[in-house]
Amino acid sequence: SGPGGLSGVFIQRPFRKGNSYAYPTEWEHLVVKGMGYSPVPTGWELSLPPNGDFYGVGYDYIWKRDLKRMKAMGVNVVRVWNWNFMGSARHTAFLDTLWEMDMFILVPFMMGTINSQGEINYRDLHAVTTRQKVIEDWTVFIASHSNHPAVLGYLVGNEVEKTVYKDQMPDFFSLLNLMVDVAHETEQLSL
């Protein structure tokens, strides 16, 4: 438990300072009321563009409606899937809307899933070239999201023990430890 016996998440809620954000020295208690959210229309094949990533401006008519409903239900943290991080600039409106609604997001870095070319991304975690590619992509991912105040945290993979990694868990966790170190270093550079 934290200060005063409170349990939960403690954050430094950023505030606008000119064109960027500043962080106060005080910590704030956040009671997480989370919800999983995937605005993929019923019947849509994930293999079709935008490959489940409906968080861009072209789909704001879907997520703006949904976010208002979630906020009315008391949701303050959203967990999403199918986030194309290599095109992260197009997620800015979604992230800004979350922030304006006093909501946060857990952004996924998908691993062991089928990419837009129909191949499993990062298949062999024991291979040095795969590990290097993960770290390169992870660094880009962290750098492109770490300065947005709506980002509460990151998720790596989804149910990885049920994916191609089920027999690679030691490699997965050793890579995950390295990813944590890279995230800390990358975030420090971007402050």
Kindly state the percentage of residues in helix. 25-40%
Number of strands: 8
Question: How much of the sequence is in beta strands?
Answer: 15-25%
Average residue pLDDT: 85
Q: Report, as a whole number of angstroms, the end-to-end distance.
A: 28 Å
Largest sheet: 4 strands, parallel
Rg, Å, rounded: 17 Å
Order of helices and strands: EEEEEHEHEHEH
User: Strand order across the biggest sheet?
Assistant: 5-6-7-8
Overall 3D form:
globular
List unreliable stretches of 5+ residues.
Answer: none
Structural category is: alpha/beta
Number of helices: 4
Please give a structural write-up.
By secondary structure, the protein is an alpha/beta fold. The chain has four helices and eight strands. It has helices at 60-72, 92-100, 128-145, 169-190, and strands at 9-11, 15-17, 20-22, 28-30, 34-37, 77-80, 104-109, 151-156. Helix 1 runs parallel beside helix 2 and helix 3 packs parallel to helix 4. The chain starts with 8 loop residues before the first strand and ends with a helix. The mean pLDDT is 85.
Fold topology:
Blueprint lengths: L8 E3 L3 E3 L2 E3 L5 E3 L3 E4 L22 H13 L4 E4 L11 H9 L3 E6 L18 H18 L5 E6 L12 H22 L1
Helix pairs in contact: 1-2, 3-4
Brief descriptors of the model:
191 residues, alpha/beta, four-stranded parallel β-sheet, two-stranded antiparallel ribbon, 32% helix
Short description:
With 191 residues, the chain is α/β, with parallel strands linked by helices. Helices cover 32% and strands 17% of the residues. The protein starts with 8 loop residues before the first strand and ends with a helix.
